[in-house]
Amino acid sequence: MRLLLPSILCLIxxxxxxxxxxxxxxREDGTVDLQGFIQSHLDHGNKTIVVPPGRYRVVPQxxxxxxxxxxxxVEVIMKGVEMVCTETTQAVEIADCTRLKISGLTxxxxxxxxxxxxxxALGPEKEWLEFELLEGYPENQLERRIEIFDAATGxxxxxxxxxxxxxxxxGNRKYRVWRGPGYQFNPxxxxxxxGDFLVTNNxxxxxxxxxxxxxxxxxxxxxxxxITVYGSNCFSFLEYQxxxxxxxxxxxxxxxxxxxxxxxxxxxxxxGNADAFHSVAAxxxxxxxxxxxxxxxxxxxxxxxYYAMVASAEGNTIRLLGNKKPDFRKGDxxxxxxxxxxxxPDGELVGEPEPDGKSTPEIAEFFRKQRMTEGIKAALSxxxxxxxxxxxxxxISMPVGSVVCAKNRIGSGFVVKDSIFGPxxxxxILIKGSNGEVxxxxxxxxxxxxxxxxxxxxxxxxxxxDDLMVSGNRIExxxxxxxxxxxxxxxxxxxxxxxxxxxxxxxxxxxTDRLPAIHVSSVKDGSIKGNTLTSTIAGEVISxxxxxxxxxxxxxxxxxxx
Length: 562
What we know:
Layout: H1 16-19, H2 34-43, E1 48-50, E2 54-58, E3 64-69, E4 75-77, E5 81-85, E6 90-95, E7 101-103, E8 106-109, E9 114-122, E10 128-133, E11 141-149, E12 156-161, E13 168-171, E14 174-178, E15 197-203, E16 214-217, E17 223-225, E18 228-229, E19 237-240, E20 246-248, E21 251-252, E22 277-280, E23 287-289, E24 292-293, E25 301-306, E26 308-314, E27 317-321, E28 333-337, E29 343-348, E30 354-358, H3 361-368, H4 374-380, E31 386-391, E32 403-406, E33 415-417, E34 420-421, E35 429-431, E36 436-439, E37 442-444, E38 451-453, E39 461-462, E40 466-471, E41 474-476, E42 483-485, E43 500-506, E44 509-512, E45 518-520, E46 523-529, E47 532-535, E48 542-544, E49 548-553, E50 556-558
Parallel strand pairs: 1-4, 2-5, 3-6, 4-7, 5-8, 6-16, 7-17, 8-18, 16-19, 17-20, 18-21, 19-22, 20-23, 21-24, 22-25, 23-33, 24-34, 25-35, 33-36, 34-37, 35-38, 36-40, 37-41, 38-42, 40-43, 41-44, 42-45, 43-46, 44-47, 45-48, 46-49, 47-50
Antiparallel strand pairs: 9-10, 9-15, 10-14, 11-12, 11-15, 13-14, 25-39, 26-27, 26-32, 27-31, 28-29, 28-32, 30-31
């Protein structure tokens, strides 16, 4: 692989003597110390740093390739800069920064965090398959996040599956993999054929792997502008406990053969291994503007907080399950949802969480019977699990299995606007925050909903949504309901009206062969107005569940006669 060296060092407001103090030169192994280059500028008090254009191979330090920490009012201009991560661990960490701006950076991996092979044989009922890795794709530690792409179209054919046995090596770059226990052949769902392509995770991190590509922690008003990501070992853009991160013209996509510096037998079929943009517990939600995310292994956007699981709630005390101290602080407004999905009046925390013993065999048995993500279910089914108590201002009663979240840390105030999401194997835009806007986006070829607004009890992902505008979006070719608003809790039944409040679905354009095109439930005070809905089949285009004061008017519906 050829390293393109910069011809000049373009550094703002520095003398020629100062330029010499900031070298960016390759080592004997062809890698460069990009971290040292940037840190040298910071050490000299520079607030604007221009990294010379070039393609730089970077070795991680402490399992991260590039770090930005404790910076304020700093701009790092990286136009024309490509950072090639030499291990499949985290690319960029941004922590405890205020008004940091990073622009122009392209991130790729060599080796890639995924690999590709061609299916060469299938069992009689497709209970196993064999594949051979394609030339130009890595063979390190293969991990089971398997997708199947159609050899004729290059598009996703079978969505992500985890229920496989470990890979068995059977020859030079050749593998066999068996289905997991309980597999039953379904010729419609199990549609892969000999000649189709298998894509799965690839791990090369001798020092240990940290997931995700760009990770932000506890930042305020950070701007990521014109950032391109061509690979991710999990999420591509992930933020924790941030305050109004702006993603402007950021992009996640599979790299084209014409632009790929490595010659490969077949074009890349995946971009990131999981979500594109994932926001957790933001004080003010992300501003995702004019971005694009395609061919990732999971959602385009997920904006959410954390639920804490209730062991019991009586009087002014709520008892919560978890080995870690719940992320609640005195004065927090609390969303309170019962096991049956009833959203109670919001509460207020009047004290910090305190230890309160352990769970019980009865509580553990309750969770063993629930439909939840297996890891969370296993943790909640432990009778030795720690219990914490919190005090709320007003008396309350909630049964085991109810949930609580801090309403001021669910990404409220977000904007997702003028962006493109899909094709991808899951949802286009998934929202769990409030006081937000989803407008002017294109969701195309999502294997889940185009736009989904819902809490997810089974993931402990909060919360319910208030005051949302979903307008002017264009949704095409989704394999689920194009726009869906609903809430559930542990019972699995749709929550009654009032889980969500004041939701407007206006002036969207939907083309679909899946009905309903719009489904709204669990909403109090909403509007479905001015949408243009074209379906290739006849049937109910707009469906309503448990709502109160949801108005439906002036929608244009185009479909064949029944």
